[in-house]
Each structure stands twice: as C-alpha cells, then as structure tokens.
Write a structure and sequence with these properties.
The chain has helices spanning 25-31, 67-71, 75-86, 95-100, 108-111, 116-125, 148-151, 163-170, 191-201, 214-222, 285-289; strands spanning 10-14, 44-52, 90-94, 133-138, 157-162, 178-184, 207-210, 228-234, 263-271, 274-281. By secondary structure, it is an alpha/beta fold. It has a single domain (42-239, 262-271), classed as 3-Layer(aba) Sandwich (Dihydrofolate Reductase, subunit A). It has a ten-stranded mixed sheet with strand order 1-9-10-8-2-7-3-4-5-6, sandwiched between helices. It is built from eleven helices and ten strands. The protein binds NADP nicotinamide-adenine-dinucleotide phosphate.
Length: 290
C-alpha cells in the first residue's frame, strides 16, 4: 500500500505522557505518538469501540450487525484498531461479538491488511509474539468450533467459560491449538475470574485489549477494571425503535445516577468528520482483581 493514500489523523488534544511506544514511522505519521501510563505489576486494560453519534454500537438488538456499518468502513478506524491490536498481548471478546463476526480473527493484519508488515515490525520492536492471544468469553460454551478463529492457527486462542460451557465444548471436536479454561463454576464469569484465567496462561502480559461487546465491557466497567476506552465516533445517527432497541456501549449494567462511571479525556483526534477519543478511567479495581 502506498502510505500516502491515507490521511493522517489530526491531533486536536493529547495529554502529555512521557514515554512513547516505538511506532514505525508509517504509523507515527498517521496516528501520532502512542503511550500508556506505567502500570507496574499488572496488565494495562484498554478497550476499543466505534459508536454512532447517537450512541449505537450495534444495529441489531440480537447482535448480528458488525462494526463496519457503524463506522462506515472508515479506513482510519480500521488502522487504529490494528494499531491497538498490534500493541496488545491479548485481545478479549465476548461470544456475542464472535457470533456477529464469525469469520473474524482478532489480529492487527486481519482488520487492516495493508499495514500487516508495519504492525509486525511494531510487535517485534515491543518484544511481542507475532499475534496477540485471542480470548473468547462464553458462559454457555455454545460456540461454532469450525470458525476460522478456532481453526486457522493464525493466533493462539483460549476460551474462558463455565463448568457447563466446558461440558458443552467437549462434546465437539476441538482443534489442538485451542485451550479451554474453566473460569467459573456458576453460570456467569466475573471480570475478576476472566483476568485470573488470563493470568494462568499469560502471567506477564502487559496490555489487554477488550473489543467488546457491550455485555462484556459492562462487566469490566462494573468492577472498575478498565484503564482506558478508545472510542471512535462515526458521524451518523442510527436511531432506535422502541420495539427493537439497539445496543449502546454498555448492556445490562446500570451505573448512573447511583454509581456513575466518569472518565478523563486523554486525547482527541480527527479524520474528516470521524472523531477518535480516548478516555482514562479510575481503575483501582485491576490490581485487587489479580
Ligand atoms: N461497535 C463496536 O465497536 C462493537 C464492538 C464489539 C461488538 N459490537 C457489536 O455488539 C453486538 C454484540 O453485543 P453483545 O453485548 O452480545 O456482545 P458480547 O459481550 O461480545 O457477547 C455477549 C455474550 O458473550 C458472552 N459473555 C460476555 N460477557 C460474559 C461474562 N462476563 N461471562 C460469561 N460470558 C460472557 C456470553 O456468551 P454465551 O451466550 O456464549 O454465554 C454472552 O451472551 C454485535 O452486533 C457486535 O457487532 C460492536
């Protein structure tokens, strides 16, 4: 790809973090610098979503529609998704997100193929393995194990599930490269249990990226286990019918007014009419979760 083809993001505001990640020049000129606060002894947990201006992240209440229709297939958004995957050790998604994008594999090159080599250089510079570990969270274990994420061996995969989920999965044929972890002996898995499960397979992981969906991210917000949200605002109004509510960023968790979750603006970037926002959150919970 000719790197000149994509317009750089314009930085409108950026909080001053001292150390920058070693982005290759192509990414640095498109995105600017990227850094995270120091987080000794624990992983730094970030998330990335795209939303319409009226707060819709999925066009279908049953989770069938994917991010492209929200972002308008915005190339810069895909590039940023790839960048965040490239700096992460783990990409975590719920089973609903997998069902909505059944052919997806959560690697940087999958979401933005033209920069595959640049992302690979970045991972190498950061001392990371070629692909982030893909972690799929499912209470039911009702997963189609023939999907590419489980079969392609492009990225290592673990499924974090419940005791019932393990039984469900073991009824099917499982590729040898996929590990199952029983994160809970009840019907749900808390964010703490998910992090514990990750720690057993990746004890020294540095950055965990949560790519949704709204149910999974709600569980992390609920226990103050998210350090930062990268949020792209796409300049469309999707609307809602009362009969078919469309998912917003968080599903089935209520915070305000009793327990509001406030963030701090870390950066604002722009490409055309798309806004790329970054919010930091009080994440006192992360250390005690581990
Ligand atoms: N716009 C964006 O940036 C963005 C990002 C991600 C997703 N989405 C969209 O969001 C929609 C899906 O929404 P969603 O809320 O259903 O996604 P989700 O959170 O990925 O999926 C929910 C499912 O994941 C499993 N799960 C999540 N948290 C769990 C927990 N703590 N413990 C156990 N299992 C857990 C459960 O799977 P089981 O049913 O197997 O038990 C649950 O039914 C899709 O349309 C997708 O395209 C949009």
């Amino acid at each position: 790809m000719n790197f000149e083809e994509m317009n750089s993001l314009e930085t409108l505001f950026d909080s001053d973090l001292k150390s920058s990640l070693p982005l290759p020049p192509e990414l640095k000129s498109l995105y600017g610098s990227l850094s995270f606060p120091s987080h000794p002894g624990r992983p730094y947990i970030i998330s990335n979503f795209v939303s319409t201006v009226d707060g819709v992240v999925s066009l279908d209440a049953h989770g069938k529609a994917v991010g492209d229709v929200i972002s308008g297939s915005n190339q810069q958004d895909s590039m940023v998704m790839g960048l965040l995957r490239a700096v992460s050790d783990i990409v975590l998604v719920g089973a609903g997100t997998l069902r909505a994008s059944p052919s997806h594999i959560w690697t940087p090159q999958y979401i933005y193929p033209p920069y595959a080599e640049v992302y690979a250089v970045l991972r190498k510079r950061m001392g990371k393995r070629p692909s982030p570990l893909n972690v799929i969270v499912s209470a039911s274990g009702d997963l189609d194990l023939s999907l590419p994420v489980f079969q392609s061996e492009t990225a290592p995969v673990i499924i974090v599930t419940t005791v019932l989920g393990v039984q469900q999965i073991k009824r099917k044929e499982l590729s040898e490269s996929v590990r199952i972890i029983e994160g809970s002996d009840t019907t749900t898995i808390t964010a703490r249990q998910i992090l514990k499960a990750i720690e057993t397979v990746s004890p020294s992981c540095d950055i965990i990226l949560i790519e949704g969906g709204p149910h999974l991210i709600g569980d992390f917000f609920a226990v103050h286990c998210l350090d930062e949200l990268f949020l792209t605002f796409a300049p469309q109004i999707a609307g809602r019918e009362s009969a078919s509510e469309r998912l917003g960023l968080v599903a089935e968790k209520l915070f305000a007014p009793e327990h509001p979750v406030w963030g701090t603006l870390r950066s604002v970037k722009r490409s055309g009419s798309h806004l790329f926002l970054r919010y930091g959150f009080e994440s006192a919970g992360v250390r005690e979760q581990l």
